[in-house]
Amino acid sequence: MSIYFLGINGVIGSGAFLLPQEIYKDMNLAGVLVMLFAAVTVSLIALCYADLASRFSNSGAAWIYSYNAFGRFWGYEVGIFVWFLGCCTLAAEIVAFLTTLKSFIPAFNNDWLYYSSAFGLIIFFSIINFFGRTIVKALDNLSSAAKMLTIIIFIVVGIFFIHFTNFSPVIPQVATTGLMPFAKHFGAAFSVTFYMFCGFSFIPIAAKQMENPEKNIPKVLVAVMVTVTVFYALMMVVAIGILGPATAKYSTPIAHAFRTGVGEWGYILVIAGMLISIFGVAFAISFDTPSLIASLASEHKMLPKWIGKKNRYDAPWVAILVTAIVAAFLVTQSYLFLVSCIVLASFIQYVPSILSVIKFKHTGQFPNHGFKLPGKDIIPVVALIISAYMITNFTIKTLMVAVVVATLAALSYFFMKRYNEKQH
Question: CA–CA separation, 60 vs 204, rounded Å?
Fold first, then answer.
């Protein structure tokens, strides 16, 4: 159960509260169907992860799978992108936190206050990071409880304030004018919705700290995806049912929907739940992300050894600083751009993971313990095709970010390889 709640907390982030606006803009009520399609898509990928998790008890998830399937270099590249995904997620959650504050404290519209607060939060998380993990579990549990309670209250109470006339139009007029306009609107909504499910890939990262991970992680992955899909779909339906076309107007649509339904106290309740939830997710990610590059440096010698250096509290202080610097740069970007970077970084770890499933099925390497993916290659091939579709929705700017990260990672790898060869 603790892994299940960890998974729920990892998947349901700021997107649940902020992105219904963007989904509604592109697809109106049909956004709920796009959400269900994204849920099925991501669930196919999650099933591939469940199959891989039943083969490995090592911590690391995607990069460990790629490492064992395709060798050291590809495992390293995926590892760097998993770390970059963590940096982007940390930045996105901080931007979401400040966007939520903006909605009821106008002073945060001032650029100086906004950016000083963003950098201040990164510094705050980094300082606490230096003193180890003692506070993380408590805040993670608090943030999970606040999030679940806020969502359940919103759905159960909000359902009584739905006006069925708000469910029209079902789809934007512009999206009905032809196949290309529809594909454009669908693709934009799909990319945003896809992001809302991406967090499942973090569940197997700490496999070594879990009991019987080969059997428990696959069960948790399936249970988390089902739960999150139900929550998201109900939240979207209730928000649209209360606000109608006004859903597209608000940066915090769930909070405004509850205000419209029950009054000011509902708005305050949702905002408080959002702030605790988003802060908790950002805090947890600020701890987990540096551990990955520290591990690549100290345990696997794929990065300079000094990146993995730890202080007397067993905290990887250099990795914490590197992560903070990258997050500080990313936090200057828009929330939607960060969302697109997260989806791209997720895509880059999904594809080799899916290919790993296909390879292990055919070679018989690393047999399953517990869960086994049914249907031979059908699920991984369909997951691969849908993952490839994601490329069509990335902007040139996002793709350039991926090229820069991959190139810098490759240069660092070959430099370290040459250095290690000289040492020996």
Answer: 7
